[in-house]
User: Fold these one by one.
Assistant:
Number 1:
Amino acid sequence: LEQPDAVIHQPIRLKIMAALKALPRGERLEFVRLRAIVNATEGNLGAHITTLESAGYVQVAKDFNGKRPRTRVWLSEPGRRALAEYIAYLRAIVDADQERI
Amino acid sequence: MTLSPNQAADTLQALAATERRSAHAYGYLQASPDLILWGVLWVVGYGLTDVWPRRAAAIWIAIITIGLIAGFLIEFRAARRIDAHTTAAAGSTRHDAAAHAHWMFSSIAMIASVFIAAALLVLAPVSGRQIGAFVPLVVAAGYALLGLWRGLRFIAVGAALAVLTLGGFFLLPRHFDLWMAAVGGGALVLGGLWLRRA
């Protein structure tokens, strides 16, 4: 089996990708909601999002909702493909083990 | 960096759980404005019915019409926002599945309205209180059913609505409309706010 994608492999980053994948295409998730879903601290989540953004897997938009600053995140097409490949990698490991049994 | 089969299976489970949590949170957020809207309309509708019971039919025709139009506007706005994001990402104009989903929810509201009207014609209730209880019970059942797919909070909202409606119907028959205005409508508004915070 090939090696897994090191960017996605990290548990919090994997959760971020999974949370974003659950949204309909074109929809964006606010940072505060994402933090509640993946159960991460603000600093930790911010660092992982930066890593994913640098890899081109997520996109980030910062704006104001009224007077309140807002950060929204969504999955890019390369990110969607990378996650699909990672899931296929995991399934291949599980399937190979079941075939051996 | 190789995973064991157990680690891979655990990771797949964790992924599915996170996706489910995210999808539920998204569904709650989408449903929240509708609950708040109908909560406010129930406060007005049942409140006016309590004051002018003989004009209940005209009051509720107006309330339902306002609710459906406002509901469509909320869904249409959300669908347009998603389409704008999708178009910006894809560089072309295309409809997104989410937009269709929003229209689906609106269509369900229309179908439910027709179903309720047909059921009332067949059952021919003898009092306004029966109609006033039947509709919220159908709505409660709808939310409870939705919860089977979209998250437990919908079931909680449906159950609370059903219990409060039945409580008012049997325990406070003389003040049922007032009860539904304050407690039924209030519960919907609070339910909507609760979903938004999920």
Number 2:
Amino acid sequence: MLCDSYSAPTPQDVLNLVYYSHIPTMALSLMVGIFVYFRSGRSLTGSLFLGIVLSFFLWLLCDVVAWVVTDSDTVMFVWSFFGMLYVLVSLSSLYFVRVFLHKKDVSFGTKLLFGLAALPSIALAATPYSLPDFNLRVCGADENFSFIAYYYEVGLVASLWILATAFRAYRHAPRELRKQIVFLTVGIEFFLLSFFLASAGISFLIQYGYLDNYNLESYGLFGMPVFLASIAYLIVRYRAFSIRLFGTQALIVALLFLSGFQLFISQGTIGFAVAVVVFVLTLCSSILLFRSFRMESRKLALELANRNLRRVDRAKTEFIDIVSHQLRTPVSIIKGTVSVLLEDERRIPSRQRRQLLEGAYRKTVKLNGIVEDIMKVARVMAGDYRRFEKVDAGALLAELTQDFESSFQEKNIRYSLEVQPNLPPLLGEADALRDVFSNLLDNALKYTPSTKPAHESRAVREERGEIAVSVGKKSDTLLFSIRDNGIGIPKAELPLVFRKFKRASNASGAYTDGTGLGLYIVKEIVRAHHGKIWVESELGKGTAFFVSLPAGKRRGKASGNSR
Amino acid sequence: MPKVLFVEDDPDQIALYQYAFMREGIDLSIASDFAQALAASLEERPDLILLDLLLANEYGIDVLQQLKRDVRTSAIPVLIFTNFENTEAREKAEASGAIDYVIKSQVTPKEMAERVCGILKIEKEDGEKNSA
């Protein structure tokens, strides 16, 4: 059936606008989606982003067909997809944001919810059988109102859910991540808003007589690739150089695509000749533009590299300043003690001599610890962890418990270890993993003051100190927790504890003998083992460190000790 | 007996210097953080302050500037005695009025006690000249 009484066929200027708004948008969006997909190593985030882009691309394709074609059967065929694609774009945007912000896939329940929300868009899709009316005047389907209301509502709920997810993530995020969250949320919300205006909002307003110009739909599409590109920019983690170069390439290709398309739709010899000239000129200027941009980009990349080198150099100088301070402190005491003993050997009372010698010995041990830590920092910086083997987590913790037993007794600390039975082994370097838990236990011990006034820690507490260690299986990982009821860490300083030489501001009152490198080493080793570490703490009540490490398969013999 | 305020938080360092300064006839009092250092310099009126630059997460230059701003403490000579060293810290210490910048690991306690004695002697002579 043809739209015979299609009283006002779409005028050429409207069609031109449709081509201009849809075709470059399709080309750009698709390129951005594919680029992100491959650039992000085909990750879930990249796949979901490609999902948004593909749904959007198909929607644009259907829209072009609906505008251009006058065969009502074809129009009706593509019309069936509008609702589905609208729902798909909204839900995939929501899915993408949740995965991007939470750094993990959504739960099965949430997926089920998404599926249920999308189901009516298929079941109630506008088909010639379910359609209340087909408007021959504009050659378009008149969809059921409740169906339109449904897919707008899905879009609205998705948009609000994204806002709520982002708001919650923003509140709990460290400062450096907050900018990214705002950037992502603004980008995706504007994308959905433009899509809503282009796909539904304008039609809705026209249908109810508030507007009378369908062309407005097309304008909404112009901004969308920009929002998509800005989100893509975020996904590839501010790798400004590549994305800018890519952006230029994408724009040039879209421009060529558009001017090439003109060759096929131009009418008459003169029209065709003009289209050819435009195409050739566009091609030449595109090549020039691309070349000059590539040169600029190289220059920019060099500048960036230079800036990065200067930053690294500054960081190294700072590191050396602090490390030399750390090394000089024990050296100055050992040297001072030896010099005093040499000069005054016979005159020093024996009790004082012993006190000085004990101090020098403590500092020798500390010096040794600092040198060991510096060696470990050098190793974690090189990322040199490859000799992975199966490690029995329970045995490892039991051995460490034995090592620490005398220290726990000395500080009168109640210690408990809870190991879930039948744990799968860990896959990693036994010595490095030992360092992780030894450092965390040592940390808990340092910042859990003793009940004994004579202890070297300056702070003394009334209630007995407690340290509890546990390990259990959680999906594909082993989750360790190391809790203490010590001095705690101020909330504002929690994000800083894993940095080099950072110690909580209240830590010095209890203990000052650390190198300030322990937790940095722990974090880097956990990262090299594809795990995660995080900390929860309440000032004055205690601290809990959590380590999650991927579990290996149970077959084969696991070692708890490689010493 | 000259009085020196030692701003230091390491108990082993304190024990060592208390012994060495006592041998040279100097009364060494201790402040183990910067707040204590400011309070002690007002209450005890020391003849000299040995100031470390890094105590826990605090930076000693601020304390030096506060001591020099306050008319009640500005006349007390302050010697930076630390294991932390960089050009910026040295320049700031000098600009803020420190009389010297000594690296702990580069001197022995006896050498330091003798140096302090020398400074106190000069200060005393200057004081006598000014009052005469």
